Structure formats: C-alpha cells, structure tokens
Amino acid sequence: MGIERRCLLRYRRAQAGPMKAARRLPDPHSGRRQGFTLMEILTVLAVLAIALMIGAPLGISALRQSQLRDGATQVVTELQRLRSQAQRDSAELKFSLSTSNPNSYTLTKNSVAEVRTLPHNLQLSADSGGSSAIFSAPYAELNPNVSPRVGLVWVVSAPGSSKKLYVKLVGVTGKVVLSATN
C-alpha cells in the first residue's frame, strides 16, 4: 500500500469523526437477569395486602364519621334557617321528628308540611326536651307551650355505630349548637 493511499485513509477517518462504539446485545449466558422473580412479586403483593388490611378499617371509620357530621350539619342548618325565616317572615315555623321513620323529620310553615330525609341512612331521635320545636314570630323564640325553655337535645346516629352527635336548641332564643357530647 502506497503512501498516498495511507494518507487518503487517514484524511477520511479524520473527516468522519471519532468512531462510535458498537452496541452489544446482552449475552443470555452472562449471569445477568432481566425482570422479576416469582418470589419478588409475591413479596410485594404480601406487603400491599398487609398495608390494605391495616388501612381499610381506618378509612371506613373516617368515612362513617364524615357521613355522621354531614347529617348533623344538615339538621343544624335546617334549624338555623327556620329560626331566621320565622324572624324574617314573622311566621310560626315548626321542626318535628318523624314518629314513623327515624331517618326523616318534618318542617311545617302555615300548615304546609315538608318531609326531609337524612343522608346515609342516619337516624335522628330525641334525647331530652321533646320531639318538636316551634319558632314563633316576631323574635323567632322557641314557643314555650310546645318546646321547653331550657332547650332541646336531639341525637344524630348511624345504625351499627356507637358514635353520636348532639344537636341542641339552647335557651328561649333557640340558639342551635352541634356537640359531640351530651
């Protein structure tokens, strides 16, 4: 091979740039493995199952507590709305617990009754002071003939649960209070 030819080859190599390393395919016999073994997959599944068994009761308890709070808030909001409406409209409004269905209550204005139902199958029952409250005009006071002046206490509970929330109407004015204790 002549000098000219060698120079030409060097020139072309310099123009092409550095040579890239050739890619190699993995050798199946090199001892390196790809993927996961059955034992590794079963271990991960067992850890996930244990975590779910521990976390599920906590999640269910939090959900039930949230549902109970939603139902009690509904009752409190209705009572506050009735009290405000009795004052605004100078009318007599009544909130009474249902005797036939513990999941519902009745709102009455001008002899027109409207039945409402608690969400999530919650129950509303009287703890003390009676099963109805009448807000009388013009100051939206609790009617002393029907509702005791010392206040009313109603219980919002979920079937099969020991947790309860108490809705209280306090004093002559019927201030509405939500409490976790009686």
From TrEMBL:
Note the Gene3D superfamilies from the entry. Answer: Glycoprotein, Type 4 Pilin
Per UniProt, what is the membrane topology?
Single-pass membrane protein
One GO cellular component term, please give it: periplasmic space
The UniProt entry lists the main location of this chain as membrane
Give the keywords, sorted: Cell outer membrane, Membrane, Periplasm, Transmembrane, Transmembrane helix
Q: Where in the cell is it found?
A: Cell outer membrane; Periplasm
Q: Which residues cross the membrane?
A: 41-60
The record, for InterPro entries, names: N_methyl_site, Pilin-like
Name of this protein: Uncharacterized protein
Cited Pfam families:
N_methyl (PF07963)
Q: What NCBIfam families does this protein's entry cite?
A: IV_pilin_GFxxxE (TIGR02532)
From what superkingdom does this record's organism come? Bacteria
Keyword Transmembrane listed? yes
